[in-house]
Design goal:
single chain, alpha/beta, 2 domains, eight-stranded mixed sheet, 11 helices, 52% helix, binds uridine-5'-diphosphate, binds magnesium ion, cell membrane
Length: 315
């Protein structure tokens, strides 16, 4: 069985087209297909549309989370509930073309555990988004141990053993791109042209993206902490030398009082550095705090497959 996991958050506008194009592709596949939609707390009629479609296509399964947990949690929920031997992850907005699914399956049948879809083009994305994405990948790959392949999103196929491995990672701060890279496994990369979003608006803004970037950096590396240490050593070193120089100067040439401006500059600069490092430390402490709470990453309110069982006639 093949599972296709699709996180959905207020995507009513695209769902009809999505279902159309998806079923067109899945019809041509041999073997059963599970279309696992994870509703991430949609407030429009996405769920109604999906449940309605389910009556015609029994392969559709709708997992409803109890509220909006964010895409990373929705995908995690999908991966944990998917039953397929192979699992494909794609966005609901048709930026990831379902027509490539047969190619992905072919690569998997040839033995790949992970079939990565690499964007050749990113239509409909501003140069600013492209630039920031580029810089982010450069930065994160410099500091993290398992490099994250450039220009790949979540659109990918994973074998059962890869999904199982992923499901065993217990962290609450789920930075999926990094987790995928960390799990590894034999990988094949295919290229595709990323289309612009079909309708509706992106759920990301720069604030959210920055949060994700911070998440990515701090959850996969403690190197920023070492950077803080180096910064502290440098500041202490120069401060010490400067102190010696000042004392010698005072002994040789006598004391001259002016120096107010330089003193203020030093104080503000150094206290800025201290606060920065403190904040950095706090970022990691906060992360530890979140992890120690051991809360689940998501809550499933309803699984359409379970509720189907509930309505079976009692024997
Ligand atoms: N999504 C989600 N929960 C959220 C935000 C987004 O499940 O809180 C889903 C959304 O429905 C879509 C996918 O994640 O299927 C990607 O979202 P979007 O297209 O807004 O992101 P972008 O492609 O702009 O990075
Ligand atoms: Mg999108």
């Amino acid at each position: 069985m093949l599972s296709i996991v699709i996180p959905v958050h207020n995507e009513a506008e695209v769902i009809p087209t999505l279902l159309n194009r998806l079923t067109q592709v899945t019809r041509t596949l041999d073997g059963p297909v599970e279309l696992l939609f994870v509703d991430d707390g949609s407030r429009d009629n996405s769920v109604a549309l999906l449940l309605q479609a389910r009556r015609r296509h029994p392969g559709i399964r709708v997992l409803q989370l109890s509220r909006n947990f964010g895409k990373e949690a929705a995908v995690s929920a999908g991966l944990q509930h998917a039953r397929g031997e192979a699992v494909i992850l794609m966005d609901a907005d048709l930026q990831d073309p379902p027509e490539r699914i047969p190619d992905m399956l072919a690569a998997w049948r040839k033995g790949a555990d992970v079939v990565l879809m690499k964007r050749r083009t990113r239509a409909g994305e501003s140069w600013l988004k492209r630039l920031t994405a580029h810089l982010f990948y450069r930065l994160i790959n410099r500091i993290s141990d398992a490099p994250i392949p450039v220009d790949t999103g979540d659109f990918r196929l994973m074998s059962r053993r890869t999904v199982d491995a992923l499901n065993r990672l217990p962290e609450r701060n789920r930075y999926l791109k990094g987790m995928f890279a960390w799990v590894g496994m034999p990988t094949v990369t295919l290229e595709f042209d990323r289309d612009p979003r079909l309708a509706g608006r992106t759920k990301w803004n720069y604030l959210k993206l920055m949060h994700l970037a911070m998440e990515g950096i701090t959850s996969f590396s403690t190197r920023p902490l070492r950077l803080a240490l180096v910064l502290g050593l440098l500041a202490a070193g120069t401060g010490g030398l400067f102190g010696v120089w000042e004392v010698l100067k005072a002994l040789i040439f006598g004391i001259d009082t002016p120096g107010y401006a330089s003193m203020i500059a030093m104080i503000t600069f150094l206290s800025g550095v201290q606060l920065l490092c403190l904040g950095l430390l706090g970022e990691y402490v906060g992360r530890i705090y979140m992890e120690t709470k051991q809360r689940p990453v998501f809550i499933v309110a309803e699984d359409s497959d379970d509720s189907a069982h509930r309505h079976l006639p009692q024997l």
